[in-house]
Please model this.
Amino acid sequence: MGHTNQSFATEFVFHPFSSVPTTQQLLFVLFLLLYLTIIISNASILWVVCTDHTLHSPMYFFLGSLSGLEVCYTTVVVPQMLISVWDAHTTITVASCGAQMFFFVALGSADCFLLAVMAYDRYVAIRHPLRYALIMTRQLCRWLVVASLCLGGLLSLELTSLVFALPFCGLQINHFLCDVPPVLRLACGDTHLHRTALFSMSVAVLAVPFLLICLSYALITAAVLRICSAEGRRRAFHTCSSHLTVVLLQYGSCGLVYLHPKADSTEDKDRQIALIYTFVTPLLNPLIYSLRNKDIKQALSRAMRRALASQPR
Model:
């Protein structure tokens, strides 16, 4: 009965980064350039992994899958963000906001699961090198990627349905995307159950895979230290350090938003941290893997030479 005379929101508007037109235009150009860089760099890695036969191994299959996820994940968020930056009065319907939340959470969760899968792949490669090809078969690799996507989608569907079963009284989302915490702040009534569900999912998506990654790397470290060759130890640590850098950045930034207590108002801080896993992580993934990986650099170089050679003179 408390909501009888209350009108509920049917569309939202995002909180602007700035009300100064010049600043809005500069931010638009900056975010657009970052977005294009993310798309081009990740699409390049996906392309060479698919087309270069020397990269047809489980490690590069997972790397290509990660790049494909980053392209989709960023595309779910940034185009709508660019529209809102250009015109601060642009609205988004509740249905569109729900769709964005579903794909954002689903792809972000799949990203976290895939990083755990990649840690397992490195563990098998270093602990069981002679049986690596027998364990990490092409079929198993495909199933692991599909399982990451399906699990992320199921968790996201459950959480998004729970959130959008609520009526919303507020209109302005203090964020640049329809993420769960800022949307929940606009809901009417008690959201304790929904916040509990969000925290439980965050533990499942962030804490559990991160602990498995830590376990994998503890076993990897023990195996590497038993390698007699100094060159072998160096190559093993070099291969794993790239993945570990991405893991710490991804899980660290997401954990600060989804796993810390909400007693204090941290909306602005959450929005700033969200810029890391929206722009920085997808941008650093291809840079870290391409700049630190000889095979990727050589494959990109071969692809560029083939592309230039095929051009009409």
